[in-house]
Design goal:
Helix content is about 50%, strand content about 0%. With about 90 residues, the chain is mostly helical.
Length: about 90
């Protein structure tokens, strides 16, 4: 899911601020690599933002169920007992 690591590169044309580009080159930055990394991060952020919005109702329903019924199998946990079972206390 959203693994961009082994995808081939594709040439493209970008319009960039000429002063920013010049300064980046003076700093020895690999512009293609930098833009690729930043674009991948933004794509992932927007993908998960959209996913969360599309699944908002299901997430709310799950959280309400946990608040009411507690975590499944919580009584069998051998770790983090101090965190409780997820139920809201009245």
């Amino acid at each position: 899911m959203l693994d961009f690591s082994n995808a081939p590169k594709k040439a493209t044309n970008l319009s960039l601020n000429s002063k920013v580009l010049e300064t980046a080159r003076e700093l020895g930055m690999n512009v293609s690599q930098t833009v690729d990394a930043l674009l991948a991060a933004e794509v992932k952020r927007r993908y998960w933002e959209k996913w969360a919005e599309e699944n908002k109702e299901a997430i709310q329903a799950y959280n309400a169920r946990i608040a009411k019924e507690g975590l499944p199998l919580a009584k069998y946990r051998t770790f983090a007992r101090s965190l409780g079972d997820g139920k809201k206390k009245d």
